[in-house]
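Lecture notes, continued. The same structure-token format from the folding unit now serves as the input rather than the output. Read the line below as a description of shape only.
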């Protein structure tokens, strides 16, 4: 009896579908290059995730290139439509949790919100169960998005105060951990001065910012 040669499933699954748009295919290759998913990945799920990531990147790039506000056909100044696309897409990506997390780990910049949130999670012993992996990954993503907004501009941070920050606070409440504060909003010079802040601190800071 002739033995069949083993199929190289990993090599076969590494390449993206031929009909996947190039931007999404780029995300696919990034994931495959930074993880051991090949051979075990749900290709349909990964294709959907890559499409979302490509859409998010495109929306962010448009905002970066064209600004956060634009004029509508009547000449009125309105928020860039890509901001809504970015927000909605980020929410959809959040639902995936850390299923394809290797994509973002190598490229994310460190930031105070992300670091402080990671410390809070590490000190929360009740979150050690595997069932919290997805919510924890989503929370870390929100913290990273706030850091990115701070790095981008005050306008981006103000936008995050009405979208990303409320979701971050809600996630912290659900996971029963103390959220990090936002130095740029509370006037702290360094992250150390914000240690021990509470949800109330962040909400009061947001109200002060809006009032000012």
């Amino acid at each position: 009896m002739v033995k069949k040669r083993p199929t190289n499933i990993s090599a076969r699954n590494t390449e993206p579908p031929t009909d996947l748009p190039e931007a999404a295919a780029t995300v696919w290759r990034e994931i495959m290059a930074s993880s051991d998913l090949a051979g075990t990945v749900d290709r349909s799920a990964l294709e959907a995730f890559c499409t979302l990531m490509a859409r998010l990147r495109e929306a962010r790039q448009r905002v970066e290139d064209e600004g956060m506000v634009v004029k509508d056909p009547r000449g009125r100044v309105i928020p860039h439509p890509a901001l809504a696309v970015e927000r909605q897409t980020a929410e959809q990506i959040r639902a995936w949790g850390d299923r394809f997390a290797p994509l973002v780990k190598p490229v994310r910049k460190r930031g105070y919100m992300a670091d402080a949130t990671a410390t809070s999670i590490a000190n929360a012993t009740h979150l050690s169960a595997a069932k919290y992996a997805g919510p924890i990954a989503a929370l870390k993503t929100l913290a990273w998005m706030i850091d990115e907004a701070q790095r981008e501009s005050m306008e981006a941070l103000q936008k995050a105060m009405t979208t990303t920050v409320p979701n971050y606070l809600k996630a912290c409440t659900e996971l029963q951990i103390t959220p990090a504060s936002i130095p740029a909003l509370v006037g702290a010079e360094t992250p150390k001065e914000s240690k021990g802040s509470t949800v109330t601190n962040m909400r009061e800071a947001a109200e002060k910012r809006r009032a000012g």
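Point for the exam: The chain has ten helices and two strands.
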